[in-house]
Structure formats: C-alpha cells, structure tokens
Amino acid sequence: MPKILVVNGPNLNLLGKREPEVYGTQSLDELNRSLGDLASELKVELKFFQSNSEAELIDFIQTEGFEADGLIINPGAFTHYSYALRDAIAAVDIEAVEVHLSNLYAREEFRQKSVIAGVCTGYLAGFGFYSYAMALSYFADTSGGE
Ligand code: DQA
Question: Which residue puts its alpha carbon closest to atom 1 of ligand 1?
Fold first, then answer.
C-alpha cells in the first residue's frame, strides 16, 4: 500500500474558525477524516502532520520523507517565502504535490508566488478539500508502494 504524507503548515490548525469565507467551515480534523475515508477506498495509507513551526515541518519531512511514497503539502504562508522548506522537500527526494484551499491568483499579490512549487510535481489551488482529494487520487493511481 502506498504511504503518503499529508502535511499542513501554519494556521491551518484553525480551519473552520479562520476566515471561513476564504477557507470554508470544515475543521482540519474533519478534512483529515474525509481524506482518510477516501484513502481507505483508494487503498492508500496516510500519515498526517500539522505544525505552526517551520523547524517542526522540516524535521517531520526529514524523518518521514525518505520512507514515504509521496507528500501532499499545504505549506500555508511558508509557500511564499520558505526556502528552507523547499530545500527539505528536495533533500528527501520525495514526489510532492502542493495544495491550497483558496485560489491564490484571486488573492493578494504576495500569495501569487510559491517558492515550493518548483520542487513539486504539480500544484492544486482553489478547490478547498478537493485540492487534497485530487492530489490523493493522483498518488493512488501512480504510486506503487508495497
Ligand atoms: C493557503 C494560502 C496561503 O497563502 C495562506 O497563507 C494559508 C492558506 C491556502 O490553503 O489557501 O495559510 O495555503
């Protein structure tokens, strides 16, 4: 069974409460539960992680990244400036998909640049939960795993 990491960055622990008009009313636990249900159907194993700390996100990727078959990552605001997070993804040589709940091109200009996308296979933004679900279905179809 392919093993996929699902990583959420800063402030995503506040989903449901945080700017619901932008990010929706679903909590991160609810989002992860729905993703977990989809993963069972698709026969994919998921490991979830969220942190507000850049260092913890990097440590998690370093620890888990070599063993996993893929990474679905919503880096939150680190998307726009964390070269260290980008380097961590490149360092463990894992296939990654960057996801966002909101459509960054419909928002402020500073959100319209990702320093992470260049080390990812692709990028999904603007579909809320479905950004994650589409990334998962990509990995379910393409990752071998055992
Ligand atoms: C976000 C978009 C980022 O610009 C923002 O900082 C977030 C959430 C999204 O999922 O739409 O925290 O990554």
Answer: 76
